């Protein structure tokens, strides 16, 4: 599963600036911000176009974009995760990407994640994937390759130790588990229609039936 971070163009005009300068907003800090500034310096040397970078705290980032862009006080470009794309398009905050992308440079799914209504709205900058950390002192060295094996682990784990924990309130972590049981997620809705299939019919049984004790109930965003 991949989750692109992307760059896209603001729809409404920003304040008039010289053609040799563009403004870029991001929520990067630390090493990410340092790496981005180094890349922008190389870009400026190659193109003579100055990029004015503004790093905004993550907690205020989305609201600042939504407030600043309609009034003409936003950036020319900004960097964000792809899941907010439908919101930005619906509020007419961004424009389609101004030129065709060289798709050979990118993973196909990273391109598709930035498309909406058959239009391309961004260019991928980075791709992230989830990692599963295993405590072999509890689980043992043998890999866990199925949800059934994960449930069986509960029988030999200490009391109040659960075989799987992840942040349930964040779709970044939860969607892979939902997909594994046949739940389809789109930009508009979450569908459980496919739960009628033989491969996914065990999900309600695991959630509400005799194996429900294998997973802690959602508390503080953890399952």
Tell me what you see in this structure:
The model is unreliable at 12-16 and 194-223 (pLDDT under 50). By secondary structure, the chain is an alpha+beta fold. A hairpin with a 4-residue loop joins strand 9 (184-185) and strand 10 (190-191). It has helices at 30-47, 58-68, 85-90, 108-112, 136-139, 147-153, 171-180, 202-208; strands at residues 3-10, 21-26, 50-55, 77-81, 94-95, 115-116, 119-120, 123-128, 184-185, 190-191. It has 2 domains: 3-128, Periplasmic binding protein-like II (D-Maltodextrin-Binding Protein, domain 2, 3-Layer(aba) Sandwich); 136-214, no CATH class. Strands 1, 2, 3, 4, 5 and 8 form a 6-stranded mixed β-sheet that branches. A two-stranded antiparallel ribbon has the order 6-7. A two-stranded antiparallel ribbon has the order 9-10.
Keywords:
223 residues; alpha+beta; D-Maltodextrin-Binding Protein, domain 2; two-stranded antiparallel ribbon; 10 strands; 18% strand; elongated; disordered C terminus
